[in-house]
């Protein structure tokens, strides 16, 4: 039983990371209709930035979190402005290909500068036990931190003027433009928020795993899986799907095989999309 | 007369390409260049196959890296473990790839646009993970050796074999595109709902395009195994799907010359700047972003556009002069 509970906690912790990345992606993919395949690589940049700020710069972990979020949101705006905005209104495949170009640029840039995988120390390097669950404090930080940021995002979207503008755009882009919402400004803002969320996920996860140039490539694919299954632009779907995938994956690692864990995740997607070609919750065509 | 001129041009091109090894075979670095050109032509066949499903039918398959690997491994296993002659093995490998392509196409082609790209990319990751972990199939880190008959040991011999298949692939793709089937492909790319309305069974047509495309990429995989002499699981990496996409887009999608020009040109160029190592993919990525923003039709598409523009301008000034 305690083994099962431990696996569940690990699953929720994996899921927290997926939710943070998938929420950003569902904002970009669902609202702006851009297949931002380089989102996972922005996450990777966030992890390296944490290494620079915290390990090389000696800054406190929590301050480093804020710095990384700020820096990555600026990077997100730059990417939107330089790469995706010139492609707006063109066939969907074009922004997708630009994203692949961005992946190559970011990954080779990082690998060219630092080819080895890096380790970031845990801010609180302790374990704790609770109801037979024994785990690192960092896992708890990931789980609680993700919940905090999910709530913050919900409050921002539902309770502030800018947030409701983003929600309006997700419902009807032409309508939003008609009532005077500045689409350019909103897409920059969406990218800023989404990339900041990726930075949060990276800062939380980096102490638990190696930091390497390709750490984001499978992650972004999983985030896409979550977004597609959860329904395009649906934040509820992304949250639910993210936790579900995390738990399923942890159980698959524990009870079936860790080498084939990605095979399960992506196999499930193919089966689901074969049955519901636009996702379970019926995204757009 | 004009038509004959065109054919004469193509014939001259083939003759020149066929003569290249005679010149290069004299020096050691020349022999290496033959090898690079052969590999570039193999990738060109793979890009031509992607052109069929992406360029003409408008479905962005990101599983072609996996199918290339499947074709290569099928060929290697037939030749090495089953012990079949290489020519039937090549056809069998292509057929197996086409069959698997059909099986993958059945569920995945029900999805559209970015969903199809994501599903096929997921399939590619699955194939990669299976090849990485199932060492009986892939030979693990040691890989799968592929021994060639003695008459294919010389580099120039393989060059001619690959050149022959490349010409064949171009001709087959040309026939498909010019036929009624090719028109249905393009109709689906332009507007799938409208093509349904005029009586095209879009799902079956897409499936046919995907299966033929997989047959071609399987052939390229078999030739890849023939040229390399050994295989390991990294050949199924989805980065190859990305590279094929890049070759196609930079060369020019939905043209016949584009995939060949883009692939051979870029592959050759990448080999020339091999000294800078990984950084060349940095440049690769930058070029890709610039090309897709400013020249979305690629080299050949852009050249065609320029040619049409120049012709129009020339004729118009001609009229004024009269």
Give an account of the 3D structure:
- The complex is a heterodimer of chains A (285) and B (322).
- Chain A has 285 residues and is mainly alpha-helical.
- Chain A has one domain.
- Chain A contains eleven helices and two strands.
- Chain A has helices at 2-32, 39-56, 61-84, 92-113, 137-159, 161-171, 173-178, 183-205, 217-230, 235-255, 261-275; strands spanning 127-130, 133-136.
- Chain A has a two-stranded antiparallel sheet.
- In chain A, a hairpin with a 2-residue loop joins strand 1 (127-130) and strand 2.
- In chain A, helix 9 packs parallel to helix 11 (261-275) and helix 10 packs across helix 11 (261-275).
- The N and C termini of chain A lie far apart (44 Å).
- The mean pLDDT of chain A is 86.
- In chain B, strands 1-2 form a two-stranded antiparallel ribbon.
- Chain B has a single domain (30-321), classed as ABC transporter involved in vitamin B12 uptake, BtuC (Orthogonal Bundle).
- Chain B has helices spanning 2-24, 28-56, 64-82, 86-108, 113-133, 135-138, 155-178, 180-190, 192-197, 202-228, 238-251, 257-272, 279-294, 298-321, and strands at residues 144-145, 230-231.
- Chain B has 322 residues and is mainly alpha-helical.
- Chain B starts with a helix and ends with a helix.
Helix fraction of chain B by DSSP (H/I, runs of at least 4): over 70%
| CA-CA gap between termini of chain B | 25 Å
Mean pLDDT of chain A: 86
| Biggest sheet strand line-up of chain B | 1-2
* Shape type of chain A: globular
Which range does the strand content of chain A fall in?
A: under 5%
Instruction: Tell me the major beta sheet of chain A.
Output: 2 strands, antiparallel
Question: Which ranges of chain A are low-confidence, i.e. pLDDT below 50, for 5 or more consecutive residues?
Answer: none
Strand content of chain B: under 5%
Oligomeric category: heterodimer
Mean pLDDT metric of chain B? 88
The count of strands of chain B amounts to 2
How many separate domains of chain B?
A: 1
Report the total helices of chain A: 11
Q: Number of DSSP strands of chain A?
A: 2
Radius of gyration of chain A: 19 Å
Q: What sequence of helices (H) and strands (E) makes up the elements of chain A?
A: HHHHEEHHHHHHH
Termini Cα gap of chain A:
44 Å
């Amino acid at each position: 039983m305690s083994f099962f509970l431990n696996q569940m906690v690990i699953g929720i912790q994996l899921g927290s990371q997926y939710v943070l990345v998938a929420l950003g992606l569902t904002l970009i993919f669902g609202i702006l209709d851009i297949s931002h395949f380089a989102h996972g690589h922005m996450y990777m940049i966030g992890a390296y930035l944490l290494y620079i700020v915290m390990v090389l710069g000696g800054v406190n972990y929590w301050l480093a979190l804020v710095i990384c979020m700020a820096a990555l949101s600026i990077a997100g705006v730059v990417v939107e402005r330089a790469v995706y905005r010139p492609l707006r209104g063109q066939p969907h495949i074009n922004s997708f290909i630009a994203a692949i170009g961005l992946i190559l640029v970011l990954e080779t840039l990082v690998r060219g500068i630092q080819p080895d995988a890096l380790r970031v120390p845990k801010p609180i390097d302790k374990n704790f036990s609770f109801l037979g669950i024994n785990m690192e404090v960092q896992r708890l930080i990931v789980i609680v931190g993700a919940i905090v940021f999910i709530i913050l995002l919900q409050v921002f979207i539902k309770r502030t003027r800018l947030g409701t503008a983003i929600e309006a755009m997700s419902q009807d882009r032409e309508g939003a433009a008609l009532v005077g919402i500045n689409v350019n400004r909103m897409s920059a803002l969406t990218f800023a928020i989404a990339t900041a969320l990726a930075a949060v996920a990276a800062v939380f996860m980096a102490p638990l795993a190696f930091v390497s140039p390709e750490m984001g490539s499978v992650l972004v694919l999983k985030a896409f899986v979550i977004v597609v299954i959860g329904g395009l632009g649906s934040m509820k779907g992304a949250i639910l799907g993210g936790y579900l995938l995390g738990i399923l994956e942890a159980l698959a690692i524990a009870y079936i095989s860790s080498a084939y864990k990605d095979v399960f995740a992506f196999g499930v997607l193919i089966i689901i999309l074969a049955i519901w070609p636009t996702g379970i919750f019926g995204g757009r065509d | 007369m004009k038509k004959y001129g065109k054919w004469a041009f193509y014939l001259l091109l083939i003759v020149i390409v066929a003569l290249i090894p005679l010149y290069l075979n004299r020096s050691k670095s020349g022999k290496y260049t033959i090898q690079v050109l052969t590999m570039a032509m193999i990738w060109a066949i793979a890009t031509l196959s992607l052109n069929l499903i992406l360029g003409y039918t408008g479905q962005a398959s990101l599983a072609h890296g996996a199918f290339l690997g499947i074709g290569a491994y099928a060929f290697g296993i037939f030749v090495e473990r089953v012990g079949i002659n290489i020519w039937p093995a090549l056809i069998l490998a292509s057929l197996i790839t086409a069959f698997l392509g059909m099986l993958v196409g059945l569920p995945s082609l029900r999805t559209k646009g970015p969903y199809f790209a994501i599903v096929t990319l997921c399939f590619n990751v699955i194939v990669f993970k299976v090849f990485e972990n199932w060492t009986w199939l892939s030979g693990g880190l040691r890989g799968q050796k592929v021994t060639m008959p003695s008459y294919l040991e010389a580099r120039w011999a393989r060059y001619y074999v690959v050149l022959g298949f490349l010409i064949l692939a171009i001709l087959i793709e040309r026939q498909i595109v010019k036929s009624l089937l090719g028109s249905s492909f393009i109709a689906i790319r332009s507007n799938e709902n409208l093509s349904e309305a005029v009586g095209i069974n879009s799902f079956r047509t897409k499936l046919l395009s995907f299966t033929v495309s997989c047959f071609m990429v399987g052939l390229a995989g078999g030739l890849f195994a023939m040229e390399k002499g050994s295989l390991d699981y990294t050949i199924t990496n989805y980065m190859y799907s990305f590279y094929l996409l890049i070759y196609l887009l930079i060369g020019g999608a939905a043209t016949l010359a584009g995939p060949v020009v883009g692939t051979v040109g870029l592959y050759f160029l990448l080999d020339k700047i091999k000294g800078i190592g990984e950084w060349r993919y940095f440049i690769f990525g930058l070029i890709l972003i610039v090309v897709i923003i400013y020249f979305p039709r690629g080299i050949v598409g852009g050249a065609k556009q320029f040619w049409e523009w120049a012709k129009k301008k020339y004729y118009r000034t001609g009229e004024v002069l009269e």
